[in-house]
Description:
four-stranded antiparallel β-sheet, six-stranded antiparallel β-sheet, alpha+beta, Alpha-Beta Plaits, 2 domains, about 35% strand
Amino acid sequence: xxxxxxxxxxxxxxxxxxxxxxxSMLRGAFGxxxxxxxxxxxxRDCQDCRISPRCLYAQTFEAVPQxxxxxxxxxxxxxxxxxxxxxxxxxxxxxxxxxxFNLLLFGKANEFLPFFxxxxxxxxxxxxxxxxxxxxxxxxxxxxxxQNDDLNVYDPETGRLLVEPSNASLSVASPExxxxxxxxxxxxxxxxxxxxxxxxxxxxxxxxxxxxxRRISSLFDRHGSGEPEMDYRGLVSRAGTVExxxxxxxxxxxxxxxxRQKRRMLLGGLVGSATYAGVSGEYLPLLDLAKVLHIxxxxxxxxxxxxxxxxxxxx
Length: 315
């Protein structure tokens, strides 16, 4: 599956007050700007629009497979992007301050990067959060977009790409070892995860594995060359025997405003860490992909970002 990670930097033109979790704000403002750029109307219903199958906004934000229904979680495909906000929260910005965040694109969405950059430029003119110098959102300008930490590929003067961005190719690697070890995972952003139709406030290893498999298979099926060939049942079954040796999770609630639904929504997710004993090395390729792809619900906001450390058991 084609994959691009782009680091964007914006410079505020006025004092700004932003919400505690920036992923939701960035995603919402980006969606509104892209819909304005593509359609011209924020009020048009994409599901009733005849050109939605060929509309970049509709296919990026509101894609529904043929024969499916909006809101049908079994049928709605995963979105081809993730907005990764900075890990350290910051609410107040002075004029001239820089905010950096990542845009992850999967599959064909990488081809439309110039359109997404145009949406960010429009988003800057409309403003985000709250301006502390006047009514409305705080305006900003897009000043750079880089890859591989140091290669700037965007010219803010012309709004054009300086070079063609490079894309990686993601795949499920074969495990290098099948020996067992101790696994510790960290939830770097809140994790909203359902199992048996219930939001989870703990994370048994088999639930983590199910979430990783679901995320990987759905993204590769929709935006890659199809579901990877893996022993899905075996991986889940063997994960069920892994014990949690330490768990330091807590529930973190946060609030967002939905522009589509015109109401405030209380969301919550797990934060913290857990340690699992006797984890086979066969799960390491899944963990490597999950670090990139995020897992759980609302991944487009940047939720479900994990990291891990695995220590092989010494015979």
